[in-house]
Give the backbone structure.
Amino acid sequence: MYCFICLILTLLTKCGFSLLVLEPSSTSVTSTNESQTPNPQEKNQSDSQLRVVGGKNCTIKEYPFLVSIRTFKSATHFCGGSLVSRRYVLSAAHCFEKFPTKPHFIKVLVGSTYLESKKGQEIGVKEIIMHKDYDDKTAKNDIALLHLAKDVKKQSKSIGFVKLPRRSLPLDLSEVCDANSFMVAGWGDVRPHDVYEKPEEILASSQLQCVKIPYIPNKMCLKYSKIAYNDKIICALYPKGGRDACQGDSGGPLFCKGTQYGIISWGRGCAMPDSPGFYTRVDKYMDFIKDTINNYRSSGPVKSPKIIFRMFTWLYFIIMWLLS
């Protein structure tokens, strides 16, 4: 009888009769009502999510580690990220506040200069791993990793991995890379505004933009904000204004000569004079990044009590049917 039951279950499964749904499928996501999907752009942005202003057109072959993070159904770009391995994208935790446990609401685009291009690879997200000490009120520990549903295929020069720094760098990063060589890039809005002129909606750039923004040491940044007392943040500022990273580029990299030193986090307004942007300092979180990539195992869906209950319920009814 036991072998017969196992045979029945095997046949049912092969015929497409699913007893368990261990993880969200693209079909279930597509059928989800878009109005029920949390929108990451709804966050109060008096302290703005960041985007590129005052930049120039760039290509993905110049910076092949750049990633567009978008909604699964409508493919609406809302944040940036950087590819650190075939399965992981580095980004900012605040990008995922609205759906930390719903990775099936988002996907990533790699290997494309343009948001609408079909040349890149679109890949779903299996898990969102936000730093356990992230504080949404202060933006401390604003860092997260996306565990992709499948490996990225490095099939061209348009896809590559960003270099990460060693764990302990000098407090003054200008000792490592020239202060005027730091750069941000992304597909965000290109319109400057002050803290009181928040745009009604993000007007994403269809083509990748990049701009150099001078790095300033934290001790100099203190004249603009006491936040610079935190050695886990980086300040960058073009004093005259007109260059910045703002809405739509959050989570993207602050990098210098191919090495990522910061993650775009927040700022007051965009591209305003004497108003620096603030970035999560990557070298302070290398243990989090490496431990996550090396040791993380997705187990949430498998251990779900609802799924276990569903499995035994179906099994019970099948056995009762066979014994009747």
